[in-house]
Specification:
The chain folds into two domains: 129 residues, NusG, N-terminal domain (Alpha-Beta Plaits, 2-Layer Sandwich), CATH 3.30.70.940; 58 residues, SH3 type barrels (Roll), CATH 2.30.30. The strands form three sheets. Strands 10-9-8-7-11 form a five-stranded antiparallel β-sheet, with no helix packed on it. The N and C termini lie far apart (63 Å). With 197 residues, it is α+β, with helices and mostly antiparallel strands.
Length: 197
């Protein structure tokens, strides 16, 4: 298939996927793009720059490289906190799929393809977005560092404590609980606590 025919085919596929809705009715979805190794940050920056220059904020809304914090030992034996990419060579883009957005993302330097059968873009489901830690759900969770919470499940049931840390990727929080007269940090899942009134 020639490049021109392939682009026309992709264009038709994308249009049919839109089910005839106008872009104002469409909701942006998360798509995964594959990049050359080590190009993730460049691809993210390039897409964001194009979006800024062409004023495409309404159709390409967010570009994310999910990371997690971890500890690494230095040569001197000290531990330092480092951010690691959870999915190396992949970048996640929240966008409304149409000819223009497909073309912009697909032709960004460092992008090899969209993830999907035959490189046809397939959006992530809501469950995949949450489980992969792509979207920040802190606003939905609604509890931040420094707030008092009541523990609603587990061995510390009905104890209260102060939130010291919120980890959105792992969906856990660290709460300091008074345990035998000592402040003890306890890691809990989001669903094990509730905000105290």
């Amino acid at each position: 298939m020639s490049e021109e025919k392939e682009e026309k085919f992709m264009s038709e596929e994308i249009n049919s996927a839109a089910n005839g809705k106008s872009s104002s009715d469409e909701k942006a979805k998360w798509y995964v793009i594959h990049t050359y190794s080590g190009y993730e940050n460049k691809v993210k920056a390039n897409i964001e720059k194009i979006v800024e220059n062409r004023n495409m904020h309404d159709v390409i809304q967010e570009v994310v490289i999910p990371v997690e914090e971890g500890e690494e030992e230095t040569k001197t034996g000290k531990k330092k906190i480092v951010c690691r990419k959870i999915f190396p060579t992949y970048v996640f883009v929240k966008m409304i799929m149409n000819d223009d957005t497909w073309y912009v993302v697909r032709n960004t330097r460092g992008v090899t393809s969209f993830v999907g059968p035959g490189s046809k873009p397939v959006p992530l489901t809501d469950e995949e977005v949450i489980s992969m830690g792509v979207e920040s759900h802190e606003t939905n969770f609604g509890i931040t560092v420094g707030e008092s919470v009541l523990i609603t499940a587990g061995p510390f049931l009905n104890n209260s404590g102060i939130v010291k840390e919120v980890n959105l990727n792992k969906k856990t929080i660290v709460v300091t609980v008074d345990f035998f007269g000592r402040e003890t940090p306890v890691e809990l899942d989001f669903n094990q606590v509730q905000l105290m009134a």
